[in-house]
Amino acid sequence: MAITPANAPAENTAWTALEPYAQLLHSLMPRAESIWVFDSASQLRWTSESMTGPDLYTAIEAGQKRALNDPSLPGDLVQLDRESSPLYLWWLRTDAGALIATVAVSIRRTSDGEPPLFSLINSLARPAIECLRRELCSQSSLLGLTQIIAARDKDMDLVLSVSDSSTSETGTHADELKLTLQRAADHMHCMLTALIVPEKSIALMRAGADRTPDGSLLARTHRQLLQMTQSRRDALIINKVMSGPDNSTQLPYRILCCPVKHPSGRTMGALALFRDSAAPEFEARDARLAELLARKASAHIEASYDALSGLLTRPALEQRLLALGSEPAAPRMQSALYIDVDQLHAINENFGMHEGDNMLAQIGELIRRRLPSGGLAARISGDRFALLLTQRREQAAEFAESLRQSAAQLGSTHANTRLHVSISIGVAALDKGSEGLAHALAAAESACKAAKDRGRNRVDVYEDADVSIIRRFTDITTAGELREAIASNRFRLDAQIIQPVGSDSQKHPTHFELLLRMIGLDGETVGPDRFLSAAQRYQLMPSIDRWVLTQAISMLRPHAAQLAHRAVVFSLNFSGQSLNDDEFPDFLLGAIETSGIEPSAFCFELTESDAVQNIAKAEMLMRRLRRIGCGVALDDFGTGLSSLAYLRSLPATILKIDGSFVRDILKDPRSESMVQAIAQLARNIGIATVAEYAETPELLARVTALGVDFAQGFAIGKPAPLADLLAELPLYASMTPLVVDSLADTARNPLIAVGQ
Questions:
Q1: For 19-42, how does the pLDDT look when each residue is reduced to its tens digit (9 = 90+)?
Q2: Is 352:714 a contact under the CB 8 Å cutoff?
Q3: Cα–Cα dist 596/209, whole Å
């Protein structure tokens, strides 16, 4: 006897192996005529006959109702009519008692015309019925698992479809956020998905398939959603939304709201999903998926926005502008603003980098609040910002002036001293074309530099006729001043202490980094940020490096006897340009060998990027310096993509960890992990580490706990003239190395105040 399927869905495999059980039933019950199998919804799945009647379905439905009312019943005998064969029903249940199927068997009457008792037929058929029940239970479990796995595969596809840290060549992180919302709406059957991050000015929404985004829904609920997420660590599910003072009215949607976290752990926004009230309720699986999507959104936001100012990064700005250019309906950017914070270095040097960062954060917030509709803003470097506006140059200049006036009202108080800030702004027109952004930013930068040279705290508008004037006034003038300063010896060497820290600091000598300052014609001290760019552009760095070495030896030579018996080391920087000067290495080693000073008193610093750009020359010079007893340091370590790989080639004795990592360790776990990893690696291979920008006691204590060997920054000592230091050389040479075990120790250790 062949059993054929009846209206069975192709994907339902729980009913595909019934023929052996039907044959077994026939063998146990020779008088059986027909066999039917129905699912728990009274749908016919298999039958040994092609014809069925309505009475059969009525009997099945009634029998299943009896089965639900009395779970103890194994089955029943049903008489459809006098002429038909008696019908025997068996109710198949899972081990948990849930109804899974109904088996119906018609049996020919006996010779006396009476149907056999159900108990008799049940005893005969029970072995086959039990085997069938187990088969359907197993198949149903497998089907359930298959459905769960398929659903999770779709969830994983949704999560993995969004890149963690990068976008395509033509896409932007903003595009990825929109795509994530759209995929979430479609996959999770939502009427609306929304991402709200107020501090980044992000308010995005996408509707589900065949729907129109309902902006009014988000407008009505976004404040409540943000408030609800502030105090939560996980997703919030609201499947019944009540409205009115008596909570009597149910609103027609369900809500799943998930906090969007900053890497520091604070909540900065919310990811919200809405379903119709008639749609399935949100479940724990939906919440877990939303949390993963919220993390993806946070990663995209962090990749696009500067952590300090809250504005776009320069790459994100360029990508955003490129994306706008491919959208015909998008507003066209017509002007560019270049903003430079005036004399931020003075705040950093006198009050610490944290105060400078506070100023930058205030300016970033001001720009975000004042940015005209459709505009874009980015922090493109340390104290420099770029804005792209849809307004023409004249209107942009008016906006720039209002922004400058507002910035003049910013500031902070430090040690009862009011710190004021001002900005210089350059304005330029933004031309069409692929080179438009680069040209406009360069023009706006030139105008900004002109504004600074003309007294700072002003707005200058770039004019095409001013190109040569501005360039001559800035670069050429600065380079001329440098040449004259070298010839007339108008430089000064300052020194900043690099103090050993930690429990094993006794084995490390005290270091001092020599820092160059130019003395202006008016007697004003000029920091390297004012002249190094011109020096590099006009290849003046080898001359400057020679001056620094010659002057340092001249000032240290009278103290050679003291230095021979003191554990004091002086670090000098030299540039990549000097490294490429074929005569400089011989000049450097010759000057040391004839100085009369122990070579061990010198340590020469080369930035990681300069070393990597000319790895062969860097390795050769560093090995020559090591052979005569000098120390060699790699400065700004950790910023290069191949930092660790080059450690095998470059024989450094010290790694100076880039300050961008150090100053963020208290608020950025990634920076903290980077500092700790570099310190551990260096310790394992016998290289000392220096943490720059240890500006506060808290930072000093933390870098010490992370295992660095030296610290440099305002928490230990400010730069001071080298001449003053040499007068106190015996004091410094006999100092006990600094040991920082806690913030309390840092606060009371008197050595921290040295040089302040």
A1: 777 777 777 877 788 888 888 888
A2: yes
A3: 81
Joined together, the tokens standing for residue 619 give: 């390795």
The total of other beta-carbon atoms located within 10 Å of residue 215's CB is: 12
Q: What is the mean pLDDT of residues 742-755?
A: 34
Closest listed residue to residue 731, CA positions, set 747, 755, 714, 713: 755
* Pair 224, 93 in one domain: no
- At 262, list the tokens: 């900053």
Q: d(Cα 311, Cα 305) in Å, to the nearest integer? A: 5
Residue spans of alpha helices (H) in 628-728: 659-662, 669-684, 697-705, 722-727
What is the residue type of 322?
Answer: L
Are 187 and 294 part of one and the same domain? yes
84 by DSSP, 3-state: which?
coil
The per-residue pLDDT for 547 is 93
The secondary element (H helix, E strand) that includes residue 253 is strand 253-261
For the chain, the distance separating the N- and C-terminal CA atoms, rounded to the nearest angstrom, is: 101
Q: Is residue 165 part of a domain?
A: no
**Strand ranges for 396-506 from DSSP E:** 411-414, 417-420, 423-429, 459-461, 491-500
Q: How far apart are CA 421 and CA 417, in angstroms?
A: 13
Give tens-digit pLDDT for 315-367.
888 777 777 666 666 678 889 999 999 988 888 888 888 888 888 989 998 99
DSSP one-letter code for 530? G
Do residues 378 and 359 lie in contact, with contact meaning Cβ atoms separated by under 8 Å?
Answer: no
Does the pTM exceed 0.70? no
SS3 per residue for 345-405: HHHHHHHCHHHHHHHHHHHHHHHHHHCCCCCEEEEEECCEEEEEECCCHHHHHHHHHHHHH
Question: If residue 26 lies in a helix (H) or strand (E), which one and from where to where?
Answer: helix 19-28
Q: Taking Cα atoms as reference points, which of 184, 212, 350 lies closest to residue 271?
A: 184
Asked if 339 and 399 sit in the same domain, the reply is yes
pLDDT digits (tens, 9 = 90+) for 152-196: 655 565 555 544 444 444 445 556 778 778 888 887 888 888 888
Among 303, 64, 300, 49, CA closest to 177: 300
Those residues with Cβ within 8 angstroms of residue 229's Cβ, 6 or more apart along the chain or in another chain: 236, 257, 258, 259, 260, 267, 269, 270
Confirm whether 656 is domain-assigned.
yes
Low-confidence winner among 207-211, 278-282, 608-612 (lowest mean pLDDT): 207-211
What tokens appear for 250 in the block? 């149910």
- Over its C-alpha atoms, the chain yields an Rg (Å, rounded) of 39
Range of the domain at 36: 4-144
- Distance, in Å, from the CA atom of 597 to the CA atom of 284, rounded to the nearest integer, reads 72
Residues 253 and 317 in one domain: no
Number of compact structural domains in the chain:
4
Residue given tokens 């869905």 in the structure block: 9
**Residues 48 and 9: beta-carbon distance below 8 Å:** no
Residues β-bridged to residue 498: 511
Q: What distance in Å separates the CA atoms of residue 66 and residue 70, rounded to the nearest whole number?
A: 6
CA distance 289 to 292: 5
Under 8 Å between Cβ of 682 and 688: yes
- Helix 477-487 / helix 541-556 crossing angle, nearest 10 deg: 30
Provide the token pair at 311: 């504005």
